[in-house]
Amino acid sequence: MAINTLDEKFSHEVGDIYDAEHRFLEGQQKMLQNASNPLLQTMIQEHITQTQQHIQNLDQVFSLLGQKPKRVACDAAQGLVSEGEKGMKESSANPQIRDTLIAGTADKVEHYEIASYRGLITGAELMGQSEIVTLLRRNLQQEEQTSQKIEQTMPQLLQAAMSVQQAGH
């Protein structure tokens, strides 16, 4: 699809993050099945619920734009999900290492989403779409909080992996 106007660009980018959120939701469900750390499992479960709300918020954005929700294939999301799946498979023998890989991938996902929502918010503000700005800011705020939680949990996950590794030597 040719993108010739700022409105088309905005709609394209909303479709991109819409596809990304759907892909990330599927990825989170796989991560939840593979995570062994209870804190990590809780964080993933919380973010699955948030991601479902993000998708609903994006449904509303499409509605406010007078459009039907449409996924635009997000190659970045596909790559991040694929990278996460590969890491889980390659670390299947060590649950603690797998947890660190899951958390690392989840944080990469958050940063992609944060960048996407910030760009969309700027565009919506310039278009005078205050209701859309509000919906996108809700999503952004949750993505930023989730990233912060992951980053605060990562030292604990790494310490657990290190303890198991040292005990094995």
How would you describe this structure to a colleague?
The structure is a single chain. With 169 residues, this protein is an all-alpha fold. The protein has one domain (6-168): Ferritin, core subunit, four-helix bundle (Ferritin, Up-down Bundle). The protein has helices spanning 6-34, 38-64, 75-90, 95-126, 130-168. The longest helix has 39 residues, at 130-168. The protein is elongated, with a radius of gyration of 18 Å. The termini are far apart.
How does the SSE layout of this entry go?
Blueprint lengths: L5 H29 L3 H27 L10 H16 L4 H32 L3 H39 L1
Short description:
With about 170 residues, the protein is mainly alpha-helical.
For the structure shown, list the relevant keywords.
5 helices, mainly alpha, 169 residues
Uncertain regions: pLDDT < 50 for 5+ in a row? none
Distance between the termini: 56 Å
Largest sheet: none
CATH topology: Ferritin
Supply the number of structural domains: 1
CATH superfamily: Ferritin, core subunit, four-helix bundle
Order of helices and strands: HHHHH
The overall average pLDDT, rounded, is 94
**Beta-strand content bin:** under 5%
Helix content: over 70%
The Cα radius of gyration reads 18 Å
What is the number of E strands?
0
According to CATH, what is the class?
Mainly Alpha
